[in-house]
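Hi there,

I know you've been waiting on this one. I reran it after we fixed the sequence typo, so this is the corrected version. Both the input and the resulting structure follow.
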Amino acid sequence: MKAITTLAALAFAATATAAAASDVVPGVITVSCYRGPTPEVVWDHPRSVFIDSLVAVGYDYNTATSIATRICRDERGVYDPEVLKAQTREALRNSPMWLKGHFRKR
């Protein structure tokens, strides 16, 4: 598999606006979570652009969904895009694809 420069191209859009799958930029992971009306993560879930951007850099759909859901449902990331950014980087660094060398840091 061709090496993908992922970490250097992370884009973080933890906003309340909806992002369409057509907003996926090759080689960029867009972190976008739906935040419910309260600080609790009862309704929180990843938006499709987050999952689709993980798939676009090489993750299968189920793994991408799992990573995105774990990040969006973590209470530490509520209203804190820097935490979402750090969590995404950590999740990618610890993923089997990263450890096997499919990704490289730019």
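Quick highlight: Residues 4-98 form one domain.

Best,
R. S.
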